Amino acid sequence: MRVALFVTCVNDALYPRTGIAVVRLLERLGVEVDFPAAQSCCGQPQYNTGYRYETEPLVRRTAAAFEGYAYVVTPSGSCAAMIREHYPRIGRKAAAEGRGGELAEAAASLGPRVYELTEFLVDVLGVTDVGAYFPHTVTYHPSCHGLRGLGLGDRPRRLLAAVKGLELVELPGAEECCGFGGTFSVKNPDLSAAMGGDKAGSAAATGADFLCGADNSCLAHLDGILRRRGAPLRTLHLAEILAATEEEPPA
Amino acid sequence: MTGTFIGMPAFPAAAKEAVGNEVLRANLRRATHTIRDKRARAVAELADWDRLRAAGKAVKDHTLRHLDRYLLELEEAVTAAGGVVHWAADAEEANRIVTGLVLATGEREVVKVKSMATQEIGLNEALEAAGIAAYETDLAELIVQLGHDRPSHILVPAIHRNRAEIRDVFAAEMGAWGRPAPEGLGDDPRELAEAARLHLREKFLRAKVAVSGANFMVAETGTLVVFESEGNGRMCLTLPDTLISVVGIEKVVPTFRDLEIFLQTLPRSSTAERMNPYTSMWTGLGPSKGADGDGPSDFHLVLLDNGRTDTLADEVGRQALRCIRCSACLNVCPVYERAGGHAYGSVYPGPIGAILSPQLRGTGSEIDASLPYASTLCGACYEVCPVAIDIPEVLVHLRERVVQGGPVTREGIRVRIRPARGHAAERAAMRAARRLLDHPGALRAGERLLARARRLRPRRLPGPGRAWTDSRALPELPAEPFRDWWARERGERERPDRAQQDRGEPDRERPDRGEPDRGGRA
Ligand code: SF4
């Protein structure tokens, strides 16, 4: 099976380790991975801030970059939700503004082929035990777009629970937003920091070694707060845990 | 700089104070979490919750689609039952009508049932200007009124106050409004409720005019419905001679039977109760027409538009008119919990306020332009809303209106509004980012530049970046972007035609980085 990796711009520029982990993980599971280099950003920051027109070229670019792939896998719940939920809206609005059906068609074609990593593993490959080894205590924060937007449900936790050596501890108030919210983090910095502080506090109180998530932008926010506080808890993307083996622990 | 670059709006500034107020945050946290958890349990009891929610949405959507027809049907039914219907295009007209009706009775005071519509139009202030005293009879509303305060929650307007504060307000202020608080009043909830009961009873027995809102109006029968849990509403609706109800036009439902949905969803969503404690329904003057002294002998219904028809004209934004004011979205909202209700600058706080105020009032003012941004788009509000209002969708839609401008309806006329002030620099930055992101060659160069700057990682950024680094460390920058790793490790598998064209140049020389990748977080 061949899939295209949509690494996302945040991971490309800031968290290449997550992208590398996805490649290693999928290859280990017998999947052939392509990285269409024409990809860039899905346009989520622009769209969520209200710049729909600035988003349109990125919709076109993303759709074109992944043309012909039956599966597009991404290690970001919010970017997957952007493409599946919001691209069709952008297409509808463009059509309603009398600018034709091109964007709507691009959205309709790409959306159903996009899978968030845990969806792809559990639903398409049908695996929960990916043969990973990670001898640490981990608590999991389900980011909002994955949890409520995509309805990932317990997929991430099932994958984590099957990792050898891993002890999963409950994160109290897990379903509450971490306060990142894209440009919310700089437009409403006090609220964002207060929300992040509470989330980081309850994560640290679990005593876990790692706070795991499936969206690096939320983790960047939480990690920034934890580091600034000097807390020993570290954040780690789910893909990096799933990619880890006894021979190849995460970097 | 921060201010101009991101159009630093009014909501963040207003919220800053609340965020820093430990007492307020503790009050709100306790109150919202308690009701949040209770609501979740009450809703989980119903196996058909999803269907009830869908039905509520469908009934409301259908009614809004044919609002003109149902309002006329309602007017006919209310009139036939002995009521008088008035139409108010805006707050000013509604206030004028109500004030005139009260003055015509010769009375100079009214008792009030808790009502969002009358708060929205500032009725109490208008009545006061005409020499009429309006007494709030809902306990929390009374606390707000006596404290010269503003409501901070749809259902629990005094949610920001704790018991000790309420005691102080009662002891200091009740005397000026009527029966004073008992000597040596303590802050036990029962004592406080008893003080309010005694104070209010005097008003109920004396008042000749009552003003209410309504949760629902039934077009078919002309019946109005008020949900409340203290019994004060029942007193106001039955004791006085004249009853004046001010109700938003979106509160109509077609048939009596439609109420079966909302009788189930509203109490569970708002107070986590299986059944609402006091549900009062009245149809005009009723069969007795007040002749035997049972109920008011004079009933007026003031139908309020005040921006609703304009809101209805917007295909995405109109769903906000489905709202049944249960306040579940406030109770579940992590932003409301920390910002408090006052920061929203409107009688409608929280997520629903963030989509309603900028539509009813427009996005012209600083606060209204900032409200669509008062959310992380986490979606918790949408999940709990009993009429399935996709609040995040409307928020993003209104953000577009703020930064891009576009068509809106104002007083029935379709106009194009210009983008709100203060977003020019942000717009330029978004455009520049898009250009970069739409040209992978340039993007890749930028990413490499970033990688080279990794040793410079500062503790604090200047300008707009400060908003990030004030409370968070910057991420460690990786040695190379993912696409460089890919080109080196897996690149030979790429189709050359595509790779060539997309990467811009077949660049292979890169600074020696020693180990492959030490970036990221762990
Ligand atoms: S928007 Fe929905 S959840 Fe919020 S108050 Fe209205 S009906 Fe309730």
Automatic annotation (TrEMBL), chain A:
<feature type="domain" description="Cysteine-rich">
    <location>
        <begin position="138"/>
        <end position="223"/>
    </location>
</feature>
<protein>
    <submittedName>
        <fullName>(Fe-S)-binding protein</fullName>
    </submittedName>
</protein>
<dbReference type="InterPro" id="IPR004017">
    <property type="entry name" value="Cys_rich_dom"/>
</dbReference>
<dbReference type="Pfam" id="PF02754">
    <property type="entry name" value="CCG"/>
</dbReference>
<feature type="domain" description="Cysteine-rich">
    <location>
        <begin position="3"/>
        <end position="84"/>
    </location>
</feature>
